[in-house]
């Protein structure tokens, strides 16, 4: 890939760096959103949850969205996902995010 990253990728990368700056080695090495249950997600360490939420926020941005991290929107979307996961603990994180934020 040449040139600057696309806006959603760039936003996700910046958010992940910002939130992940304090990650410890105790965090997960990989998070599979298609298999991790909402319950496991809610029970994960805070850094993994925050990084995942930031990544999801960037992933679900429009492809032509500006490379801006809207922290208020990120927090609002995080609250929506956490509430959905609390109500549907057996649903995978990927399915929950797609249900809430999926592209039409």
Order of helices and strands: HHHHH
Q: List low-pLDDT spans.
A: 1-5, 18-25
Range of strand content: under 5%
Shape: globular
Mean pLDDT: 81
Structural class of the secondary structure composition?
mainly alpha
How does this model look, in words?
The protein is mainly α and 104 residues long. The chain has a domain at 48-104. The chain has 5 helices and no strands. The chain has helices at 7-20, 38-43, 46-59, 71-87, 93-101. Helix 1 (7-20) runs antiparallel to helix 3 and helix 4 packs across helix 5 (93-101). The protein starts with 6 loop residues before the first helix and ends with a helix. Residues 1-5 and 18-25 have low confidence and may be disordered.
Features:
single chain, 104 residues, mainly alpha, 5 helices, HNS-dep_expression_A/B, HdeA/HdeB family protein
Explain the layout of strands and helices:
Elements: H1 7-20, H2 38-43, H3 46-59, H4 71-87, H5 93-101
Brief overview, please?
This is HdeA/HdeB family protein. The chain has a domain at 48-104.
């Amino acid at each position: 890939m040449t040139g600057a990253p696309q806006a959603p990728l760039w936003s996700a990368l910046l958010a992940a760096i910002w939130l992940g700056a304090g990650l410890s080695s105790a965090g997960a090495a990989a998070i599979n959103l298609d298999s991790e249950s909402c319950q496991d997600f809610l029970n994960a360490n805070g850094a993994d949850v925050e990084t995942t939420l930031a990544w999801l926020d960037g992933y679900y941005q429009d492809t032509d969205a500006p490379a801006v991290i809207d922290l208020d929107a990120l927090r609002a979307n995080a609250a929506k996902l956490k509430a959905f996961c609390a109500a549907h603990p057996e649903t995978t994180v990927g399915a929950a995010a797609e249900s809430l934020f999926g592209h039409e």
